[in-house]
Amino acid sequence: MASILIGTAALSFGIYNVHRRSQITEGGVLGLILLLDHWMGIPPAVASPALDLLCYAFSFRILGKNFIGVSAVSTVCLSGTFLLWQQFPPMLPDLSGSPLAAALVGGVFVGVGTGLVVREGGSTGGDDALALAISKSTGCRLFFSYSATDLTVLLLSLTYLSVRRIAFSVLTVFVSSFLIDRIKQIPPRRRRSVGSGTEANG
């Protein structure tokens, strides 16, 4: 639970303080949240759980109860931390004039935050569940199902972002995906059984 809370707090902090101000977007549901916020004024705290619920409803029978349960907790935490950050003015310098820095810094927050949640067996958004469900049901590699959803949202984002901004968005997606993959390889800490004679190495 602690990793999920820390992860969603880091993710929402990066989106609120970096991505929204610099107009660097993400693919998948995260990018769609920013798209809806820009064109329709729907705040992330509302759009995030609504879109996630739609994706989870589609994915429920394919991915099972455990994944959906952990992801539901992360959805609530993500919405709650968005609400928390929105009570304060931005806490980081405005990077809108430095899109390369914004792409890298934003990608780190998204990658670390999402990676911590994925490592615990959940997701930070319905796009993870959607990509996994598409991959499992069609037999295509997970890379392609993620790429399809991300590319679709990035193309839609051209309605309010320049090609140059989208190029930086592709960079932030690369950075975040790399970090998610790396963090996911780190096994979550497990409680030692009482009376166990096995000690952790190191």
Write the layout of secondary structure elements.
Elements: H1 2-22, H2 28-40, H3 44-63, H4 65-85, H5 99-119, H6 126-138, H7 142-156, H8 163-184
Shape estimate? globular
Average pLDDT, rounded to a whole number, is 80
Number of strands: 0
Number of helical elements = 8
Main beta sheet strand tally, sense and closure = none
Tally of structural domains:
1
- As a percent range, the share of strand residues is under 5%
Poorly predicted tracts of residues: 191-202
Overall structural class, as computed from helix and strand content, comes to: mainly alpha
Distance between the termini: 25 Å
Helix content: over 70%
What radius of gyration results from the CA coordinates? 17 Å
The ordered H/E elements are HHHHHHHH
Can you summarize this structure?
The protein has eight helices and no strands. By secondary structure, the chain is an all-alpha fold.
